[in-house]
Amino acid sequence: MKYDIIGLSVLAMGLGGIEYQIQSNIQKRTKIDRKVDSLMLVQSVRIQVLQNNNDSLAHQIHDLALCVQYLDSVNLAKGPKSERAEKRGRFIGGLIKGLFPGL
């Protein structure tokens, strides 16, 4: 009877120790899970900021491309007009020099 009580006591202490280790590991796992969740949250915020910046940059590039197209079309339209204006200016300048040579 004495040995039965000692055996049951040792068994109870062994089960208690095992239970303590299980609870300790569960707590460690919970802490690790919380850290991982917080890191994932921080990273998701950073990823969202980068995606927003990327979208903004793509929009600015699109606007810049439209501006370049507009400026190219303006330069093409300006070419003949500026040549015509230059010819007129030379003609009028020649007339003025011919009429008023002292100027």
What would you note in describing this structure?
The protein is mainly α and 103 residues long. The protein is built from 1 helix and no strands. The radius of gyration is 43 Å and the shape is rod-shaped.
In short:
By secondary structure, this protein is mostly helical.
Total strand segments: 0
Shape assignment: rod-shaped
Q: How many helical elements?
A: 1
What does the average pLDDT come to? 86
**Class from secondary-structure proportions:** mainly alpha
Query: Low-confidence parts, pLDDT < 50 over ≥5 residues?
Result: none
Provide the β-strand percentage band: under 5%
Q: What is the percent of helical residues? A: over 70%
Cα-based radius of gyration, to the nearest Å = 43 Å
**CA-CA gap between termini:** 138 Å
Order of helices and strands: H
Let me know the largest β-sheet.
Answer: none
Characteristic key phrases:
single chain; 103 residues; mainly alpha
Question: Would you spell out the secondary-structure blueprint of this structure?
Answer:
Blueprint: H1 2-99
